[in-house]
From TrEMBL:
<dbReference type="GO" id="GO:0003723">
    <property type="term" value="F:RNA binding"/>
</dbReference>
<comment type="similarity">
    <text>Belongs to the NusB family.</text>
</comment>
<keyword id="KW-0889">Transcription antitermination</keyword>
<dbReference type="InterPro" id="IPR006027">
    <property type="entry name" value="NusB_RsmB_TIM44"/>
</dbReference>
<dbReference type="Pfam" id="PF01029">
    <property type="entry name" value="NusB"/>
</dbReference>
<dbReference type="InterPro" id="IPR011605">
    <property type="entry name" value="NusB_fam"/>
</dbReference>
<feature type="domain" description="NusB/RsmB/TIM44">
    <location>
        <begin position="186"/>
        <end position="254"/>
    </location>
</feature>
<dbReference type="InterPro" id="IPR035926">
    <property type="entry name" value="NusB-like_sf"/>
</dbReference>
<keyword id="KW-0805">Transcription regulation</keyword>
<protein>
    <submittedName>
        <fullName>Transcription antitermination protein NusB-like</fullName>
    </submittedName>
</protein>
<keyword id="KW-0694">RNA-binding</keyword>
<dbReference type="GO" id="GO:0031564">
    <property type="term" value="P:transcription antitermination"/>
</dbReference>
<keyword id="KW-0804">Transcription</keyword>
Length: 273
């Protein structure tokens, strides 16, 4: 099966199940082990979480649900990632999850919402001196990962405000509508090593699709979108992904602005004829 669906110029129809399952998504450290099936390792180098830039938005509203735009972009990214893995349309997958019935006996621990923080991402590694110290840090890490798994796998209506769910759907609809244009744009700006191994860069390409569509379709200010995309990459991707995504989006924006100028000039010339 062809793995290069991210760069395929067709309607949204990625191949089914490149991976056997989606583990409960994610990690505050940006560690890919929790995103793709890989052998677990226990290093003595632990990634230290640090905060993102300060946000002007409250994190939780009066009803006790997430209400920041970051939460919507995070939910949209996770949905898009899952849609790529299983070969489905992201909007339909989102609505399916939104309307899914709760399992009998399921109880959501709302205290997790207060402890969960989607405004942190991985910082520089911490070198521990002893196994005991590493074990303690890993216990804290596992606790945070459990909280994230609890939140991100919960029915969305229990976690996100109505406005955030509406914004998430708008983001995913923009991705679907703009899929072919984004594919062409990504083909121009993405590094060759990413394009040569698209199956292991699904998450990074999803960040690019999300950001490009929000700029091109929804018209959100590019400074906001790029900053959010870089922060999502810091949080969920690894290696140089944040820097690469930043460069890809700035190149995309430059070409978008140049195309806009060309179109404006063409319109002006036609009016003068």
């Amino acid at each position: 099966m062809e793995a290069g669906f991210i760069l395929s110029c067709s309607s949204f129809n990625p191949p089914k199940t490149l991976f056997t399952s989606i583990s409960k998504i994610s990690s505050p450290r940006g560690r890919r082990e929790l995103l793709l099936p890989r052998a677990a390792t226990i290093p003595l180098i632990i990634h230290n979480p640090i905060g993102t830039s300060a946000s002007n938005y409250p994190r939780i509203d009066k009803s006790g649900k997430f209400c920041s735009p970051r939460a919507a972009r995070e939910l949209a990214l996770m949905t898009l990632y899952a849609a790529c893995l299983e070969g489905s349309d992201p909007v339909r997958l989102f609505e399916k999850r939104l309307n899914a019935r709760k399992e009998i006996g399921y109880e959501f621990d709302r205290a997790c919402l207060m402890e969960y923080d989607h405004m942190t991402f991985g910082g520089p590694p911490i070198a521990t001196q002893t196994i005991e110290e590493a074990d303690q840090i890993l216990k804290n890490y596992q606790k945070e990962s459990h909280i994230e798994a609890e939140v991100l796998s919960a029915p969305p209506k229990l976690v996100y405000s109505k406005l955030i769910l509406l914004f998430t759907r708008k983001l995913l609809a923009a991705v679907s509508d703009n899929w072919e244009s984004s594919v062409l744009a990504i083909d121009k700006v993405a590094p060759d090593n990413w394009k040569n191994e698209p199956a292991i860069r699904i998450l990074e390409f999803s960040v690019l699709h999300l950001a490009m569509s929000e700029i091109a379709v929804l018209g959100t200010r590019h400074q906001i979108v790029i900053n959010e995309a870089v922060d999502l990459a810091k949080r969920f991707c690894d290696g140089a992904a944040p820097r690469v995504i930043n460069g890809c989006l700035r190149t995309f924006l430059k070409e978008l602005e140049e195309n806009g100028k060309d179109q404006a000039q063409n319109v002006s010339m036609q009016e003068n004829v």
